[in-house]
């Protein structure tokens, strides 16, 4: 009888997750050089701040429901020894680690797992140290892009980093998955602009570029976050930007010839000067003329120069758009970040604010991506518009983002990010919805799958390429238990093309037992 009670008690406490979790905590305090500092960065479910810390950077609220699996413990390291202790103790007690920098993973993989897990949140690891003279900055991986832009601008208005448009993205995930933004046609991806890194591996070794070797340094600059270890900091190359840049955004409805303009845009956007990042966003609106639904296409770009320099270029290359001086605004580069985040006239300090607001709409969303290598036909475009007019698409937005520029000149194998020459543009599909509609989330997700299927004949093939940072678990995922090269190749080749094999080799060397893993991590060869 006594034995039975003991077994029952043990089973009960195990099913509640008490055993691994308590052993893990004990291990952390034993392993840490200074147990008082590590205790201040540990949040168990009993801690009153646990939910606030967890939810602080859940950027896709689809993954913040009561049914979403939650971490047993959150650790917010403030010293490298905290990372070392957490990795050691997680391995010892069979817990998975999910590393979180800015929390923008589209599928929530930095804070959700189907097995018992620990979130390592880099919120306390976010210093930004800018060296204007040498045009470099050491940036800890938990910093958001807004902090990087702000700290650079504090010292120079004519230097920047090839970061993303949305200022709240974490540099940890951004660079790990490639990273493209306003400057990518001029200077390449975020990963192309990293010259050193500080990294911690599965054995707790702190490595820099020299000690990790060129293969691993190559892999972490685009091979996807959460596969190889934890990036602690990046050394970024700072790039020149003019004191004055120009931005414009011009909207045209179907009635105002949007279809013909998009068809023309497809032909010329990738050939526009590297100093531009042309894109066209499409969404459904009520027509001002008769109140019926129509599609609005918004043509926009940054230009690294003045209005006087931009207008003749647009007049010569894309006169059909009719871009006028009134459509354009001049500002500093850092102000253009506010502009593209729809934060015009706000103080620059807002870039330091980690509170998230999604300029594209609801905070529940599903994202997909495609690459286009041949212009799509008018009929194909009309089919896309018809789907954008569906009821589920009332908040959907589809953006064509022009490639070309330096992307055509950087070899596919320079970093794991392979989408270089030969692409006219990338397609970004975003369907989003509001909290009150989350009970109907499946209908929105189904819509995005239908649109994606519809686009099959018009986009890249064999593989159908996708951008790793626009994580999409519809493309495939690893099993919870064993990972398989064949299974992972399905989504791996879409994200990385032939670079996938080199990533597998690096993974096999640095983490052969596959400790750092998630649904779309790179598998080792067994
Ligand atoms: P998060 O912390 O969720 O991490 C993402 C992945 O990287 C996870 O797998 C995580 O485990 C891993 N990871 C995080 N930190 C790590 C570290 N230090 N070491 C190792 N692995 C780490 N992209 C883009 O290129 N250009 C853009 O303009 C935009 N815009 C955009 C807007 C919005 C609203 C969202 C939600 C997303 C984007 N993205 C984007 C996509 C974004 O770049 C992508 O989701 C990044 O991975 C986000 O990085 P975070 O650190 O914020 O995410």
List the keywords.
alpha+beta, Uridine Diphospho-n-acetylenolpyruvylglucosamine Reductase, domain 2, Uridine Diphospho-n-acetylenolpyruvylglucosamine Reductase, domain 3, seven-stranded antiparallel sheet, five-stranded antiparallel sheet, 17 helices, disordered N terminus, binds dihydroflavine-adenine dinucleotide
Task: Describe the protein in words.
By secondary structure, the chain is α+β, with helices and mostly antiparallel strands. The protein folds into three domains: 20-121, Uridine Diphospho-n-acetylenolpyruvylglucosamine Reductase, domain 2 (2-Layer Sandwich), CATH 3.30.43; 128-240, Uridine Diphospho-n-acetylenolpyruvylglucosamine Reductase, domain 3 (2-Layer Sandwich), CATH 3.30.465; 245-331 and 362-455, 3-Layer(aba) Sandwich (Vanillyl-alcohol Oxidase, Chain A, domain 3). 31% of the residues lie in helices and 19% in strands. It has helices at residues 2-15, 18-31, 35-39, 50-55, 80-92, 145-155, 171-176, 184-187, 209-212, 214-219, 258-268, 307-317, 333-340, 378-388, 441-455, 485-496, 499-510; strands at 42-44, 73-75, 96-100, 117-121, 128-131, 136-140, 159-160, 194-200, 206-207, 230-237, 239-240, 245-253, 279-286, 293-303, 328-331, 364-372, 397-402, 425-433. The strands form four sheets. It has a seven-stranded antiparallel beta sheet with strand order 15-12-14-13-17-18-16. A five-stranded antiparallel beta sheet has the order 5-6-10-8-9. The protein has a four-stranded mixed beta sheet with strand order 1-2-4-3. The protein is globular, with a radius of gyration of 24 Å. The protein starts with a helix and ends in a 16-residue tail after the last helix. 48% of the residues are buried. Mean pLDDT is 94; it is low at 1-18. Bound molecules: dihydroflavine-adenine dinucleotide. Dihydroflavine-adenine dinucleotide (FDA) binds at residues 59, 98-106, 109-110, 122, 141, 164-166, 169-170, 172-174, 176-177, 179-181, 225-226, 230-231, 358, 469, 518. Residues 1-17 form the signal peptide.
């Amino acid at each position: 009888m006594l034995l039975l009670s003991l077994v029952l008690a043990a089973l009960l406490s195990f099913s509640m997750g008490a055993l691994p979790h308590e052993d893990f905590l004990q291990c952390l305090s034993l392993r840490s050089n200074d147990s008082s500092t590590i205790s201040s960065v540990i949040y168990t479910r009993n801690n009153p701040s646990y939910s606030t810390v967890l939810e602080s950077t859940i950027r896709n609220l689809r993954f913040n429901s009561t049914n979403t699996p939650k971490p047993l413990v959150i650790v917010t390291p403030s010293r490298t020894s905290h990372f070392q202790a957490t990795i050691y103790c997680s391995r010892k007690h069979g817990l998975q680690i999910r590393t979180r920098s800015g929390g923008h993973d589209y599928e929530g993989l930095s804070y959700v797992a189907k097995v018992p897990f620990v979130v390592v949140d880099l919120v306390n690891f976010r210093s930004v140290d800018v060296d204007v003279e040498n045009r470099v900055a050491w940036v800890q991986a938990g910093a958001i892009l807004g902090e990087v832009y702000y700290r650079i601008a504090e010292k120079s208005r004519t230097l920047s980093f090839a970061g993303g448009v949305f200022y709240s993205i974490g540099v940890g995930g951004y660079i790990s998955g490639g990273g493209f933004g306003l400057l990518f046609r001029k200077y390449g991806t975020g990963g192309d602009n990293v010259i050193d890194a500080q990294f911690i591996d599965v054995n707790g070794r702190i490595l820099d570029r020299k000690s990790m070797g060129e293969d691993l340094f190559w892999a972490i600059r685009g091979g996807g976050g959460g596969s190889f270890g934890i990036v602690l900091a990046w050394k970024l190359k700072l790039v020149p930007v003019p004191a004055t840049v120009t931005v414009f955004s011009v909207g045209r409805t179907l009635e105002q010839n949007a279809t013909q303009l998009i068809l023309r845009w497809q032909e010329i956007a990738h050939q526009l000067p590297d100093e531009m990042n042309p894109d066209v966003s499409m969404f459904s609106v009520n027509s001002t003329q008769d109140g019926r639904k129509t599609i609005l296409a918004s043509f926009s770009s940054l230009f690294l120069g003045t209005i006087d320099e931009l207008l003749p270029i647009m007049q010569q290359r894309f006169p059909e758009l009719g871009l006028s001086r009134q459509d354009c605004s001049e500002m500093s580069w850092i102000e253009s970040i506010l502009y593209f985040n729809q934060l015009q006239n706000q103080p620059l300090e807002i870039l330091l604010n980690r509170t998230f607001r999604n300029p594209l709409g609801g905070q529940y969303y599903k994202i997909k991506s495609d690459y286009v290598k041949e212009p799509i036909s008018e009929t194909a475009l009309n089919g896309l518009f018809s789907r954008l007019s569906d009821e589920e698409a009332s908040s959907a937005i589809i953006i064509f983002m022009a490639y070309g520029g330096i992307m055509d000149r950087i070899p596919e194998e320079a970093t794991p990010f392979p989408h270089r020459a030969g692409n006219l543009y990338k397609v970004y599909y975003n369907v989003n919805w509001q909290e009150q509609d989350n009970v109907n989330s499946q209908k929105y997700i189904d819509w995005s799958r239908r649109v994606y299927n519809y686009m099959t004949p018009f986009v890249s093939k064999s593989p159908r390429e996708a951008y790793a940072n626009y994580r999409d678990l519809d493309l495939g995922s690893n099993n919870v238990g064993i990972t398989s090269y064949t299974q992972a190749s399905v989504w791996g080749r879409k994200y990385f093309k032939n670079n996938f094999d080199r990533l597998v080799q690096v993974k096999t060397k640095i983490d052969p037992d596959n400790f750092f893993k998630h649904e779309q991590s790179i598998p080792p060869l067994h």
